[in-house]
Amino acid sequence: MSDSIPHIPVLRLGRSYESLEKIEVKDHRSSETMAVVSTVNGGILKRDLAKIGASRAALARFAVADLVALSAKAGDHFLNGTLPLGDRGHSQNAQQYVETLSLTSGLPHVMVRRNMAKIHYALTHLDEVLNGLSRGLDLGILDRGFGEQFGTKLSFCPTSAALGLVMPSNSPAVNSLWLPAVALKTPVVIKPGKEEPWTPYRLIQAFIAAGVPPEAFGFYATDHDGAATILNTCGRALIFGDKSTTQQYANNPAIQIHGPGWSKFIIGEDCIDQWPDFIDVIAGAISDNGGRSCINASAVVVPRHGAEIADALARKLGPIGPTRPDDEDARLSGFANPKMADFIDAQIEEGLKTAGAEDVTAKYRYGSRKVVFEGGTYMRPTIIRCDDFSHPLANREFLCPYASVVTCAQGEMLHRMGYTLACSAITKDPAFIRELEAFPEIERLNIGPVSTMKISWDQPHEGNMFEFLWKRRSIERAW
Length: 479
Known about the structure:
The protein starts with 6 loop residues before the first strand and ends in a 7-residue tail after the last strand. Helix content is 35%, strand content 23%. The relative contact order is 0.13. The chain is α/β, with parallel strands linked by helices.
């Protein structure tokens, strides 16, 4: 292996380990090797996880308030610092991180920096985040094991030995979801995405530079067997992936699933005639972050004016094409795996064979939906007008700027739209708002022209990390 190519080792609860088995992380355009990553099997994971108690004990020596302060320092290291990259003496500054992640993931520089900013904000505002997640709990109670607040006795105990993470490659900011675990005294065991080892590894190095014990972190590039070991052994785990990947864990409360979001904009009868006022916010919700987030809007549900709304969105998004990765106005992401773009394009074309839908962006795209630009493969925005929810393209989600515009009577919207991770409802109708508030299939509800992409760290749109990692128990003390 050339000394010029970084080697990213396994971190066996803080200890670097070079394996005989390695994978290469490559430039998505040129196929140049950017790093080699050591991999391990489930057997090594099982041996290491049997010793996870020592990792938890290392974090238990700190107060939650101290770990919150160290997390803020880690945020600054992550955003601005030069940090170790592997075990061959390489290092990586912030700009090199941006450039390298862009080369292997396809995200343009501007999107990588936005994702960095989100992670930095979460780390430097962790006191506010934990206050929201715990509903104002005095977190010193976690240090003492018991206490009194709100006029009642309180005690909490951990739900797991560690937090296992099977991470994706599509968006760096998803790493923000596990960040509270460190301050909540829970070790993390990470399987990085195949094309995206950079962000979790850099975050681990930032935490270590800030003073968090190295043994609190496991970093294991591994296979399906190793991923299953992480999910089933840590006690609590997060998995990211499509429905086929996550469905087997749907009924396991110890595993939090982060898959498709099917996020939506809906416009009520009372506001539908003002639809031109909302096109910009809807278009942004569809295309921001290259359309790769589970909270990107993938459907726009309206009672009327569906054809006009679809045309306005297509006119705005259709001309967008790929640009160089360092273009500050870049709107599209390339695909690290071009076969994914082939699959998406084929799925859309297959869906269009069913009557009742039209690719409205075709007339504004001036070319193919799937394009190759400077060696990278891209999917240009696609807006599909659907007559109703029965069409196979009406409630789909893809890793690119894609949305259907579906016509549906207001009285039927909630019955037809199904599970929705983030829903932005443009309505002032009090009765309809009450229906929306009572609808259990919506995880995060925005009222008014608010992007589905707008998040609140203290009001998570997926799961509550405090409640996931700590549970309240009854306590009575004689002394």
